[in-house]
Each structure stands twice: as structure tokens, then as C-alpha cells.
Amino acid sequence: MIETNLSQTVNATNDSGSAYDTNVKYLLSDKQILSWILKYTVEEFREMDIEDIIGCVGDDIEIGTRPTDAGLSNLGRVKGTETEDSVPGEGIIYYDIRFTAYIKEAEMKILVNIEAQKSSCYSKLGYHLENRIIFYLARMISAQKQTEFFHSDFDNLKKVRSIWICMDNDETEDTIEEIGLDRKMVFGNKKNSYHMDLMKGIIVNIRNEEKCISGEGIKKSQNVLISMLEELLSEKDAVEKKRILADEYGMRMTTELEGRIQIMCNLSENIRERERIDAIKRMIRVNITKEQILSMGYTETEYKKAESLLCVNV
Predict the structure, then answer these.
(1) Going by C-beta distance under 8 Å and a sequence separation of 6 or more, which residues neighbour residue 60?
(2) What are the sequence ranges of the domains in the chain?
(3) Helix or strand or coil: residue 67?
(4) Which residues make Cβ contacts (< 8 Å) with residue 235, sequence separation at least 6?
(5) Which end of the chain has fewer CB atoms at under 10 Å, N or C?
(6) What gap in Å lies between CA 265 and CA 241, rounded to an integer?
(7) pTM value?
């Protein structure tokens, strides 16, 4: 099989965890996946068909164009030419995915940022994720000066949407949240018709199977976007995952999408294997016997590999 540029990128990364994170970002930036995310999180796309939305993130976008990598199709990932936002005196932001979407009929241009977030927990991050989302939105607005508008032409500001896929939620926490500007009258009765929808943050909370309390696996979400993302990022084998995405969600298995799914499944397997070997090594270090370790469900092959690695590191 001819290796695509996408798989070469990941294979060039030795660390499995880093490669997995990179692959998730590439997978989410596939135009079919982006179109699903836009349809179910951004109001302006809600009534559009997926095929039409794919056209909105097509070749005419400004900060991301058709992939120029050899072997990539028109349904490939958005290849942003600039995922770094540098504002003098304000530091640098590195976005996971950033692109422009157009709704031609409405002559509307929307700047979109998508982030793949392993954890949204305050105790792990050391800050509230909502504040980071607001910061990203503010930067996406302020960065438009001298690019989308000049001088005091503030009505030329483009809408910005920052979408966060958070992956560490409990089995009952499959939710989609929206953060945005709100307008309310605190005194008087003046009527204002201008709609304050310039900036919105969207949090898509998908569930972590390891947090499933019932032990029977996570039941399919009633939200179609969440259920699709949970299948996409699940630990199912590649063949089953591709079948579900094609049969239940109408995905076309392009070379890029199939390759990314296969790579991610391989990386997941490597990470699980490494975690099992590390667990055995820890048990050997505290003098738990081989018989006890094998009785916990670990294999003879895993035990020998852990034992040999300990000898090498002595």
C-alpha cells in the first residue's frame, strides 16, 4: 500500500502519545468531519446538508486552502497556512485547527477554530476552560484589525466560532454548551434590534469509556454529533469503526480518512500495550510474583517483555 503524506507525518513521530494527539487533530480536520461539526454546532449551517457544508470549507477559503500534499483529494483535511496567531505585545496562540467557512448565498464569512481537548477538568488544567475559550475568541476578534477591517470600520468584523471537543466526560455528561455575548436591558425600555452573535464558544462534551460506571459500555448518545465523534475517537478496531461511520453516518471512506482511522487505531493499540507493560514492570518492582501477575489477565508474552525491559534498564 502506498503511504500517504498523512501517515508519513505520524510515522515520523516516535512518541505514541504525541503521535496520537497529532492524528486526532488531522482526523478532526477532515472536511467531512468539519462539516458535521459545523452543522451541529454553528447555527448558520444547521439547515444545510453535509455535502453543501463541505463546499463551504472548500478551495476558496483564505487561511486554509485545498491540501497540496501529493495524493490528497478534495475531501481531504483543511491545510491551514497559518495556525499561529501573533499579536505584538500579546504573545502567541497556536490553534489546533483554524479555517474560514463561507456561506456564499448570504455573503457570510465565518472564522472557525477547533480544539481537541483531552481534559476540561480544573484540577488538571489549573484554570477554568471557559476563560481560555473567551481568550481565544477575543484574540480571533482582535486579530482581524488590518486584515478583515481597517480604521474604524467595525461592522466589517467577521463572526468567530471557537469549538472545543472535550473528551474526558462521565457517561451522563454528553452535552453541547454555548458561550456567547448576551444583551439585556438593565434600565429603561429602549429597543435594540442588533443581534449580538459576533463571537461564540461551543463546548462539545464527549464521554470517556473508562469513566463508565455501569461497566456495560457507554450507550449511544441521543445527540447525533456526539455519537459520531464518540465512534470516530473510540477504541474499536479500524474495520468496525469504518463500517459504522460509513453505514450509520454516511461517511465516504477516502484514502485520507481511512488512513487516519487506521493510524489512530494502531496508535491506540500501542498505547494500551505500553500501559500494560508499564503496569507489569511496576508490579515486578514491588515483588509481586509472576503467577500473581498472570492471574490478573496479563499474558506470558507481556510478562517476558516487561522483564526484559527491566533488565535492559538496570
Answers:
(1) 102
(2) 31-253
(3) coil
(4) 209, 265, 268, 272
(5) C
(6) 9
(7) 0.76
Nine-digit cell string for 295: 492471574
Q: Please give the chain's pLDDT, 314 residues, in tens.
A: 334 433 343 343 334 566 777 788 888 888 899 999 999 999 999 999 999 999 998 553 332 332 323 334 445 555 544 566 665 666 677 788 888 899 988 889 999 999 999 888 899 899 999 999 999 999 999 889 888 889 898 999 999 999 999 998 888 899 999 999 888 888 988 887 777 889 999 999 999 877 665 556 678 999 999 999 999 988 888 889 899 999 999 999 888 788 778 877 776 666 667 778 888 888 888 888 888 888 888 888 888 888 887 786 55
Rounded Cα distance between 105 and 89, Å, is: 38
Residue 188 CA to residue 311 CA, distance in Å, equals 78
Give the three-class secondary structure for 185.
Answer: coil
